[in-house]
Amino acid sequence: MSWQAYVDTNLVGSGKVQKAAILGQAGGVWASSPGYTLSAEEQKAVLSAFTSPDTVLASGIRLAGQKFFTLSANDRSVYGKKGGDGAILVKTKQAVLVAEYTAPVQAPEATPVVEGLADYLISVGY
């Protein structure tokens, strides 16, 4: 399956995620939903969020020009909120899944979709 298919089918296709991207930990965007563009600075911040969770907890995270307040962050997952909307970032062995959901979808609906895909990618070496 192509990386784009994971974004289109597994994330956005779930109906629980509105925008998504898969970033390579070595850099670069492997796939993204149409019109969802993370700047080079935002990509760098996403990747560094997992090595310095305290920083992202203090300052939040910016995705596609929108700033999210960080609810929790650790070496696997970062969860953000902006009004009724939210963001879920999950690190796998080689990639980082970046997903945004919008109200009325809530975190308990979107989180298992993103975390589940991350678990699958980890299980197959990615």
Sheet bearing the most strands, described? Answer: 7 strands, antiparallel
Helical content, roughly? 25-40%
Continuous helix count: 4
Mean pLDDT across all amino acids: 97
CATH topology description: Beta-Lactamase
| Count of all domains | 1
Radius of gyration: 13 Å
| CATH superfamily placement | Dynein light chain 2a, cytoplasmic
Extract low-pLDDT stretches: none
Shape: globular
Portion of residues in beta strands equals: 25-35%
Folded structure, characterized:
This protein has helices spanning 3-11, 40-49, 53-59, 107-123; strands at 19-24, 29-32, 61-63, 66-73, 77-82, 85-91, 95-101. With 126 residues, it is an alpha+beta fold. It has one domain (3-123): 2-Layer Sandwich (Beta-Lactamase), CATH 3.30.450. The chain has a seven-stranded antiparallel beta sheet, sandwiched between helices. The chain is globular, with a radius of gyration of 13 Å. It starts with a helix and ends with a helix. The model has no long low-confidence stretch (mean pLDDT 97).
